[in-house]
Amino acid sequence: MTEQLKEDLDKVIEELKKKVNELPDSVMAHHHLGLVYMKAGRIEEAIASLNRTIEIDPLNSDSMINLGAIYFGQGDLEKALELNTRAVKVHPESAQAYANLGLIYQQNNELEKAIENYERALQYNPKLVTAWLNLTSVLTMKGEDDRAVTAARKGLEIEPDSPLGHNNLAVALYFKQQFAEAYKHMQKAKELGYSVDPNFSARLKEHLG
């Protein structure tokens, strides 16, 4: 974080703290303060602000999702799962909450549940690129190569310059033995700054001779 950005965030935090003092039951003020604390890396204060938001408004799914993201980043998958599960109960069409649940289940190696939640996320927001890309990874892990290629292509339709998208498509195509096209997407991922697994790169080049 640059010094200027830190100063700017500190100013916003002070302004929001004043607003919270003036309006102690303002959901918006506590929520925004929590988000700025997150951006500033002041995680414990972010947790406190987002928890306060949920105390005031037990149906605030956005705060649940953001709080869940903090716990996920800390490796507390149980707490992240609890919060995103609560989020979909109060907001059953929350694509982001379902996508987050997919990622949590993926981390727990519960692949069927991960797929189910990624697909539910995409049902509500077909343009959620991260869900397409993570779905590609899980389908590849399960050996469902045709579905993995389809998911990767859909993600790249939305975000053509996604480095991860090109890498994931390269891997899915590799397992379908479509080595030439896989190599093309691997090279594109590299051009876009993705750190391609050198072992994967070497294996792909071997197949191409």
TrEMBL record:
Please indicate which superkingdom the organism of origin belongs to.
Bacteria
State the InterPro entries in the record. Answer: Sel1-like, TPR-like_helical_dom_sf, TPR_rpt, Ycf3/AcsC/BcsC/TPR_MFPF
Q: Where are the TPR repeats?
A: 27-60, 61-94, 95-128, 129-162
Does the keyword field hold Repeat?
yes
Q: Which UniProt keywords apply?
A: Repeat, TPR repeat
Looking up Gene3D superfamilies in the UniProt record yields: Tetratricopeptide repeat domain
List the SUPFAM superfamilies hit by this protein, alphabetically: TPR-like
Q: Give the Pfam families listed for this entry.
A: TPR_1 (PF00515), TPR_12 (PF13424)
**The protein's name:** Tetratricopeptide repeat-containing protein
**Record organism:** Desulfopila aestuarii DSM 18488
